[in-house]
Write a structure and sequence with these properties.
With 123 residues, the protein is α+β, with helices and mostly antiparallel strands. It is built from two helices and six strands; from the N terminus they run ββαββαββ. The chain has one domain: Alpha-Beta Plaits (2-Layer Sandwich). Strands 3-4-2-1-5-6 form a six-stranded mixed beta sheet, covered by helices on one side. β1 and β2 form a beta hairpin. The protein is globular, with a radius of gyration of 14 Å.
């Protein structure tokens, strides 16, 4: 199962982590894995190229798990309010798209969000 956790701070989406493999089909034929991978790279490239913003991301060598952090989505680190809104909105759109996919692929995809307020995460 692919598990995706989105992180928000005071309602602002700024980070997500993907873990696991869907197990929907064999490697090379897994349409769910392909879709999630393609959307993840779309998000990264859109933030970097369209919004000219840095994205910290790490792909684990041994598992293909990925963590993506867009610091410019946050008011305390982003310089441009319009850019903050656009980047956070893009991450929220990705969250909503994946939530829609869970309706058909609930055995293979799990999506959750964690709200961080006052310095600590809240699920």
């Amino acid at each position: 199962m692919i598990k995706v956790t989105f992180y928000k701070r005071n309602g602002v989406y700024y980070r997500f982590r993907e873990e696991g493999h869907s197990g929907y089909a064999d490697a090379g034929s897994d349409i769910l894995c392909s879709a999630v991978s393609a959307m993840t790279m779309l998000i990264i490239n859109a933030i970097v190229e369209s919004f000219e913003s840095d994205v910290d991301y790490h792909i684990a060598d041994d598992s293909a798990d990925i963590t993506v952090t867009a610091h410019d989505a946050l008011p305390e680190t982003g310089a441009d309010e319009r850019k903050q809104y656009a980047i956070s909105g893009l991450l929220k759109a990705y969250f909503l798209q994946l939530k829609d996919l869970t309706e058909d692929y609930y055995d293979y995809l799990s999506v959750q969000e964690v709200e961080e307020n006052d310095g600590g995460p809240k699920k």
